[in-house]
Model the fold of this input.
Amino acid sequence: MISLTAIFAGLAATLLVMLAAWLISIPLRDVSIVDIFWGPNLVAAAIAYALFLPQPGPRDWLIVSMVILWALRLGAYIYGRNRGQPEDRRYRAMRERRGASFWWRSFYVVFVTQAVLAWVLSWQLLGAIAGQAPLGWLDVLGVGVWLFGLVYETVADRQLAKFLAAPDRGTAVMDRGLWRYSRHPNYFGEFCLWWGLFLLAASTGAWWSIISPLMLTGLLLKVSGVALTEQTIAERRPEYRDYIRRTSAFFPLPPKATP
Done:
């Protein structure tokens, strides 16, 4: 049974995590750290559901463990990628537009927004943890899809990190390995991972939580993922236009032959 206490405990958990992130960002003058806290957001929500539900189901600590493993990998990767780097250009542009008020406006414009998005995404975790149905074949399939997504995005991130570390890459475009078949294999891995978690919720009958992976898919494709990443990249890397012509944006497909 899903209680209102558990539902709002998840929201409180994500808000508290983002409040801490915001307070840390102020002296650092770096809102980019919000990305590092995306994983802990979901971990906090999952733990809140496991603790505050009247009777968690048989998937409670399985779900918590899966989310912790995902968050640790993602957080370590983002920290390593951003360490020593200036604030992300998206947030620098916001800082310039908002001026002296940005430090407090960033709380609700950036941090609260991400807390609410993480809470909505966590509804599938809530559905899985609250469900009382015994583990079944759909759970096995869900864990398999989740594991595939985790490995896929890990490999994609490592391939990109190795490419970016090359001193002679110039304006070259990463089109090797998994990036040969998709322009955003890391996002495709994330997509698979969260749809895998949804299957564990669906196994309990919580089909209503499909809003969570649908929201994530929309964000990855149209908002903060593919669309945002490619907004200016072709201007900075002219070779990227040819890469767009021959390579699938999201789902891995054989590259098109170039004329």
Notes: The chain has a mean pLDDT of 93. The chain has twelve helices and no strands.
